[in-house]
Amino acid sequence: MGKLRAAQYACSLLGHALQKHGASPELQKQIRQLEGHLSLGRKLLRLGNSADALESAKRAVHLSDVVLRFCITVSHLNRALYFACDNVLWAGKSGLAPRVDQEKWAQRSFRYYLFSLIMNLSRDAYEIRLLMEQESSACSRRLKGSGGGVPGGIETGGAGSPGTPGGSLPQVALKLQLQVLLLARVLRGHPPLLLDVVRNACDLFIPLDKLGLWRCGPGIVGFCGLVSSILSILTLICPWLRLKP
């Protein structure tokens, strides 16, 4: 499935490149047809995915963390609805249900896909916040134990204290710099979370473009879809890179 998806978005990216560089219309048509066949093949292979997504939602209901329970459950429910719409689209494109309004069902499908991705990114943001708080507390305990100051020898007091005129902006810049460094440290120490953030962020461009909320163009959509597909294949090859639960 991941290979088909990667091939489909590679065709999308290739088609955009060929059009940009003035390739022959016949070649462009063949690439578009290949992309369409790959899309239809993926829809055929996803016929049972709605049931799998519902089962995943049922398992997520039992998570102890309320925020994770909500984000993961709602994400799986939206994925189930997305796959259901996708099945209707497949029936229409394959000729089993020729009267299906494909544009309407495609819009529904991408809306559910967008909601699912928003929930995934919300879950990622929540996990990042928890890990940053844990890392910050651990750093504070280490600094108190060693009698040190701010990491890297940066002093936040003195002339730049909040009570000093003109000292507010440097303080904000310093805090922002420390937060960025802390975020980088957390993501570097948790590769599954980093991959999940990148993959969901890349996937987000697809429904945004298809729904007309943010027109990215076929080049960006193809590139982001290809990157996301490669990361998905990577998590299949290396299961420890898959974010759990």
TrEMBL record:
Under Pfam families, the record lists: PEX11
Q: Which UniProt keywords apply?
A: Membrane, Peroxisome, Peroxisome biogenesis, Transmembrane, Transmembrane helix
Q: Where found in the cell?
A: Peroxisome membrane
Transmembrane segments in this chain: where?
A: 220-241
Question: Under what name is this protein listed?
Answer: Peroxisomal membrane protein 11B isoform X3
Q: Which organism is it from?
A: Vicugna pacos
